[in-house]
Design a protein that fits this description.
With 202 residues, the chain is mostly beta strands. The protein is elongated, with a radius of gyration of 21 Å. It starts with a strand and ends in a 36-residue tail after the last strand.
């Protein structure tokens, strides 16, 4: 079989890494979403499975991995809860603002069995073990926000305006156009006068 990463995800033939991710962590619950994917092909074309845009989500005592899937039969399953993740059995360490999750066991959910369809019949049963999950999370306190030292000007007035930002992680923002397509693009602010119905060009 052949494994092909879909940028910005990478694959070294052993592990698929989703480096561009962001989310919210509050009161023990979190939802962290990444971009990119991985495609598996083989068995003379019978296998053609694409898994993309994973989300690690914890609510209460339950943690699941959600993904977008195009199965080998060509059917699309968006936000599919493909696996239960056992964080209690993982090795979790914290250093400063960085949290490392290592070797978290994962098992296939009942809903997730459709991802491995072969002619309409699932090839794996619910509860089947999947590869362990590893994650490194950089936690930023507070919400991203931009503040201005002055937001209104009188006609003809000249002023120096200071723009301040906090709570942003530029590494989690992926560009959509060359030369920064699918690469960390940072965050920027545009000041100016815009019509009420203005929007960016396509």
């Amino acid at each position: 079989s052949t494994t092909t990463a879909i940028a910005p995800a990478t694959d070294d033939a052993a592990i698929t890494t989703f480096a561009n991710a962001s989310g919210v962590w509050k009161n023990g619950d979190f939802s962290i979403s990444a971009v990119g994917g991985v495609n598996f092909t083989g068995h003379g074309g019978i296998l053609n499975l694409t898994i993309s845009d994973p989300t690690l989500k914890r609510t209460g005592d339950s943690t699941q991995l959600l993904v977008d899937v195009v199965d080998s039969d060509g059917f699309t399953h968006d936000d599919l809860a493909i696996a239960d993740v056992d964080l209690d059995a993982a090795t979790i360490t914290k250093s400063g603002d960085t949290i490392n999750i290592a070797d978290a066991p994962t098992t296939l959910t009942e809903d997730g069995t459709v991802a491995f369809n072969n002619g309409g019949a699932p090839m794996y049963a619910a509860g089947s073990p999947l590869s362990p999950l590893n994650a490194t999370l950089n936690v930023i306190d507070g919400n991203p926000q931009v503040t201005l030292s002055q937001s209104e000007l009188l006609l003809g007035e000249t002023a120096t305006i200071t723009v301040s930002g906090s709570g942003f992680d530029p590494a989690t923002v992926s560009g959509t156009r060359p030369p920064l397509a699918n690469k960390p693009a940072g965050t920027y602010v545009v000041l100016g006068y815009f019509a009420e119905n203005w929007r960016p060009s396509a």
